[in-house]
């Protein structure tokens, strides 16, 4: 014990000496230390190394409440975009099998889905990405430390391993890119004990069975969508509106399609408590807001999708005076991603006012790496960033919602062109296309610059990517009219749109 105590004091003395030496000489262990090994942090660290910086990246995954843990790569790779899209694809294949019969494929009954097979395949792919990221860091000479990082001062980071071993790193600049984690409701008895979050759903070895998804964010709807699509009894409990922050007309189309697809919705309801019965089932008591009536039902799984919280609590920000938004817990940053403390930067989901999207974090991280290395002064442009919600009927958008455009320009200052269309894929399969819709929100005067574009339909993400480029280039409605479409595609309908909402005319596309 005495030997251990002496070693501990020696470690503190040696590291204090290193910090004092750094302060006196201006020499650092690294040019850049990145805390956070998600998509943004990895992109920043690798880009910095490519432009000649000496870089270290610290990443440590705190297991979820349920004990789920994963490897290098952050939320997107492990418990977000990648496994979500793969499980969404599994659901789409289920629909395709049903459509296939109309196209002449002889498929023997019964058809069923095996969760374990899907989960193993998805998890194996994710593990391959974890390994790939480690190899890339090694190839690019980035030092990877599987440690929890925190700030000591504006040039010093303390790393702590799972076993509690501490390491001190000094750096000219420090970047925080730790992202966020799902929140549990703290006012609902049994919520944490008996529920899971998106940190867990993709790593379940067994099917979740009959599931209640609480929340109506894109995470909630995407998870509910693929669970329904693989044949599970799924209910979404919504307190107020779906897809808050998105265009609300499009949000209604998304949820209408989901209801027709088989997902159940409990609108204007809030859960009150969760209890585990002797049978193992989870009994949920909830209240209908408008009537205050209480209801109960049992489920095999409760998935909480009620928001995310930034990973800032263990970073030591308060000790250094790094300014945060007290309501959101996010770090306040300037346009160049700098914080209130010199030499400390933050970007991605942890930064206040930034889109919580992987591609924006990746691009912001790369641009920051170039600026810190003195190679560029280019700032990240956060305007007109496209995104897609991977619900059963996909919803892609770029630019302003109709509500936001009206707020900024006035109702008489915008023109909205729109169309209901039927994807060719839906025709022979006799699928309802009532929610396949697009609208182009434009300035009313002048060249009618496009302010926002919204699309529900197959492959919405693929459709929207190209149009996102056009908005960056200042596309106008006349540019759409001058563009020749690719026939027969869903994207073609965007450049054919000619009916305005203002006209009151039927916007249903007929013929080809």
From TrEMBL:
Residues 30-365 form the FAD/NAD(P)-binding domain. Its EC number is 1.8.1.9. GO terms for molecular function: flavin adenine dinucleotide binding; glutathione-disulfide reductase (NADPH) activity; thioredoxin-disulfide reductase (NADPH) activity. Binds 1 FAD per subunit. GO terms for cellular component: cytosol; mitochondrion. FAD binds at residues 85, 149, 349. It comes from the Eukaryota. The active site is at 487 (proton acceptor). Disulfide bonds join 76-81. One of its GO terms (biological process) is cellular response to oxidative stress. NAD(+) binds at residues 215-222, 307. Residues 385-494 form the Pyridine nucleotide-disulphide oxidoreductase dimerisation domain. Its cofactor is FAD. Keywords: Disulfide bond, FAD, Flavoprotein, NAD, NADP, Nucleotide-binding, Oxidoreductase, Redox-active center, Selenocysteine. Pfam families: Pyr_redox_2, Pyr_redox_dim. Belongs to the class-I pyridine nucleotide-disulfide oxidoreductase family. This is thioredoxin-disulfide reductase (NADPH). It comes from Takifugu bimaculatus.
